[in-house]
Write a structure and sequence with these properties.
Distance between the termini: 38 Å
Strand content: 25-35%
Structural class: alpha+beta
Number of helices: 6
Number of domains: 3
Order of helices and strands: EHHEEEEEEEEHEHEEEEHEEEH
Number of strands: 17
Shape: elongated
CATH superfamily of the largest domain: Pseudouridine synthase I, catalytic domain, N-terminal subdomain
CATH class of the largest domain: Alpha Beta
CATH architecture of the largest domain: 2-Layer Sandwich
Helix content: 10-25%
CATH topology of the largest domain: Alpha-Beta Plaits
Length: 246
């Protein structure tokens, strides 16, 4: 069997997310044939090599790739578990998916609604969430009041927040009866869209994600899920391969 990077093998095996596996490798908890792995990309063969995690042999049984789109309702937490006992995106998945180790790609805050991609594909998750790949996300926003032309221009140039200036956003007036504007950004700063409007003096009264890269929410009912089509997975993967160079 062909060799592959240790982080790819362990992530694909459903042992944990790419971030969690990377943390274990970084602290020296992963060994290959008795030798501590020194790199995330150290090549391994799942047949010939013995891999241990904290002294226990790892299982390489690969779960089937799962790609789900969820229209997250308000009040649901975008994580696999919550130490405060709040309902998570895992809790509202159809029963047949709850035994599979899948996780949300990125975060959508509890008060926001809309598109959440759920998958066990660690490589795709990495490319969709890492800043250098600049995957665009589009939201519908309801605010108090209206933006003036100067404020729209500021969003288009970038807004100064306490953790740095945002990249230019694409803002349009929304035709949706319950939302004021649509805004497209490609960063992943915490509560970024809410903070951008707050910096202009506007409270966000409603926020709904409708697009991630090439993937669109369209008419999926709130609280419902559906599997992505092969064409959607291919389009999303191709888009995620394109790294922007500045």
């Amino acid at each position: 069997m062909a060799q592959q990077p240790i982080i790819k093998l362990l992530t694909a095996s459903g042992i944990g997310s790419r971030r969690k596996i990377a943390a274990v490798i970084k602290r020296g908890g992963v060994a290959i044939n008795g030798k501590v792995a020194e790199s995330f990309n150290e090549p391994v063969d799942s047949v010939r090599d013995v891999i241990t995690i904290d002294g226990k042999r790892a299982s390489y049984k690969k779960e089937p790739d799962v790609y789900l789109m969820l229209n997250k309702p308000k009040g649901i937490v975008s994580s696999t578990s919550d130490d405060r006992g709040r309902k998570t995106v895992i809790d509202i998945l159809p029963e047949k998916y709850r035994g599979i180790r899948i996780y949300p790609v990125g975060r959508l805050d509890k008060e926001s609604t809309g598109l959440v991609l759920m998958t066990n594909d660690g490589d795709l998750t990495f490319r969709l969430t890492h800043p250098r790949f600049e995957q665009e996300k589009e939201y519908l926003v309801k605010i108090d009041g209206e933006l003036n032309p100067e404020e729209i221009a500021e969003l288009a140039k970038g807004i100064y927040l306490d953790d740095g200036k945002t990249h230019p956003a694409k803002v349009k007036v929304s035709r949706h009866p319950h939302f004021s504007y649509s805004i497209a950004v490609h960063e992943g700063k915490k509560h970024q869209v809410r903070r951008m409007f707050a910096a202009l003096g506007h409270d966000v009264l409603g926020l709904k994600r409708i697009r991630l890269g090439s993937l669109r929410l369209n008419r999926l009912p709130e609280g419902e899920t559906r599997e992505l089509s092969p064409a959607e997975v291919e389009s999303l993967s191709k888009g995620a391969m394109r790294q922007k160079v500045r």
